[in-house]
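Before relying on records like the one below, remember that each one covers exactly one chain. Contacts with other chains, cofactors or solvent are not represented anywhere in the record.
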Amino acid sequence: MAAATISTISMIDSNKMEVDKLTYEIFSILENKFLFGYNDPKLSPACKQNSNNMLTPFAGTKTVGAGKIRILSIDSGGSTNGILAAKSLAHLEATLRRKTGLNNTHIADFFDVVAGSGAGGVLAGLLFTRGKDGVPMFTAEEALKFLLESDRKISRCSNRGLFRRVFRPAKMFDKLFSGLTLKDTVKSVLIPCYDLTTRSPFLFSRADALEMDGCDFKLANVCEATVADQAVEVKSVDGRRKITAVGGGVTMNNPTAAAITHVLNNKQEFPFANGVEDLLVVSLGNGESDSGTGNVMSSPAAFVKIAGDGAADMVDQAVSMAFGQFRNNNYVRVQGNGIIGEKHESTSKGERMRKTVAISEEMLRQKNVESVLFEGKKLVENTNLDKLEIFAGELIKEQESRKTRILPPVVLKQASPSPRTSSATTSSTISSF
């Protein structure tokens, strides 16, 4: 292996080929790491030993590693109807702005993939869809405000009882997204629902939309499908595919595992992600459902919520175990525990908003809960807010390190921005970040 490297360098010298330093470094990286599978940094010409016998890059040299893929996962509604996740993202975005000094930073700038279910899918659409000016349509604070003001419309129904009123959230979403489709998202987006036609989960995916027209859907329809508590019919932009959808919370309350699987199996867009050590994941819960009080079989909806909570916890346990020794640095789960809000159907909209925000803020101040291999859950000293603060530092560190790397960790296909009245067309533009 080493002999092959020496032989190649000697051949270059004997032929007296003149190559600049950067070309030489790239050639050496390709030779050592890919042609011969060699991964010893001591033999990389891009490194030298310092006085402490530590390897450091030569001055002006870009580092070799491709970095980590940053994944954001957002649960379905939970007891806070998405507000806990929205508050978490508002805090995370504010922290990123404070730490970087960039006041126009968006959540989408610091993540490569977002997966959102139910209200989490709506948040994903708001935060990762390209606006008219080319930047994401919503900041995290604006998305929080939207969820608070649109809570009843998103959940489709007003007060229960004889005069139950059903809203049509698709109209609200259609006005909001104005014909934009999955192709108009700025990063890799995954939003689930359950298809009653095929009796199987269905994942709306930006990557699939760019590959096949039959997989591109209007974002208004995607959002309605993932929050639907009644069956809704959704068609692809070209009309070739039709699904009968109910909400993502039914099939994938916690979409973290789906996001991780997507990254590790999508070598076109994430060529160097081979294991959990190559990922940075934050999974945002929305508070455990309060449907567990009283008779769990009081209604089909209550039973579905409890089943969803159990499934979300199982995903958290499985993901935590999968990360193993990396779970403390590479995986963070934010979830509210043990706080049940008052029933407030009869209160005013302003009072409902105030109570929901207060509960969410209390959840963020709770000590973080971590899943431990074969031991269930345990409280740690850091609060949810502390964990988000630490994770913000990791996101910034990864963002900065990409400026000094030769190999891009992400190669996303890009779609040409579409008019708000029609779908986007795919271009050959490649994005590295």
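The radius of gyration is 24 Å.
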